[in-house]
């Protein structure tokens, strides 16, 4: 670092940030900054207004800190200060004009982001349709707490459990509840595969800055099946920096996986430690009573065709996967509705022979 002047350091940082940030964000918040002084490992960054100081501290402090460390090769802390004169030499009146302008840019930017981040949430997956049992009570309570105070309670929230046990249902339910309680908050739900595909597409089209801006400015990020990130280096790198940027400004992150962080093979230590910062909640296979309650909740208007004995039969036979449990009931209801007659346990066993082996 000693071979670089302060001006050279900050020029290099700005060039890197120009690449990483969307153009409106860079032009509004970073372009008119300068490196005022260096005190040990603390870089004092001069900004033109109180608004710019607050915005940079809330949104980009972590990113700027990481960029400084990469440029200088040393640990770095950042301190933003409002300076009457930056390297751009602005008059008092110009500062006031600029202070007003970003407010307009910010409103437009947030409106654009809100329009572009309408999370595709499944209308069927809400808290009202989630059947709580001993297997899922803790995870459900954690999800409700996150919905009440996103970014404040349990951040990140890491949900794990086997396939078809309700992790995705709870994630969508969090999204629905946050949207209902906080209509202005920006919510993004996607699987790790979708995240990876967007990274690849952004690289191919040279739009990484837009990708980063999209996901580092949300209020709630819901990432499903995060175990599939293992082994995908570039995607993991982008997710790592996205996680840091959001966590730095107390934005809520919810992650799901089939396994707890320590059991995901090839997961980097730095990601594993971050996943363990908040709360880890597991969902176990439901007990018999919960399975029966789930079936009854899904029965709807078909109750006249499916007897209690058939529900009990299905609940006894399909034990580990709620998706399969609901699928078995759907098949029985469809058969009963088509033939307009009640299905008994014997008929249900024949209908479900590929799901429930005769010897089970």
Describe it.
By secondary structure, the chain is of the alpha/beta class. Strands 5-6-7-4-8 form a five-stranded parallel beta sheet, with helices on both faces. 52% of the residues lie in helices and 12% in strands. Helix 10 links the parallel strand 6 (220-224) and strand 7 (252-257). The chain is elongated and about 85 Å long. Helix 8 (192-204) packs across helix 10 (233-248).
Write the layout of secondary structure elements.
Blueprint lengths: L5 H15 L2 H8 L3 E6 L2 E6 L2 H10 L1 H12 L4 E6 L9 H25 L20 H12 L8 E5 L5 H15 L5 E5 H13 L3 H8 L4 E5 L8 H16 L3 E6 L11 H7 L3 E5 L4 H12 L8 H10 L4 H18 L5 H7 L9
Parallel strand pairs: 2-3, 4-7, 4-8, 5-6, 6-7
Antiparallel strand pairs: 1-2
Principal-axis shape equals elongated
Low-confidence regions: 86-118
Assign a percent range to the helix content: 40-55%
CATH class of the largest domain: Alpha Beta
What's the CATH topology name of the largest domain?
Answer: Rossmann fold
Neighbour order of strands in the largest sheet:
5-6-7-4-8
Structural class: alpha/beta
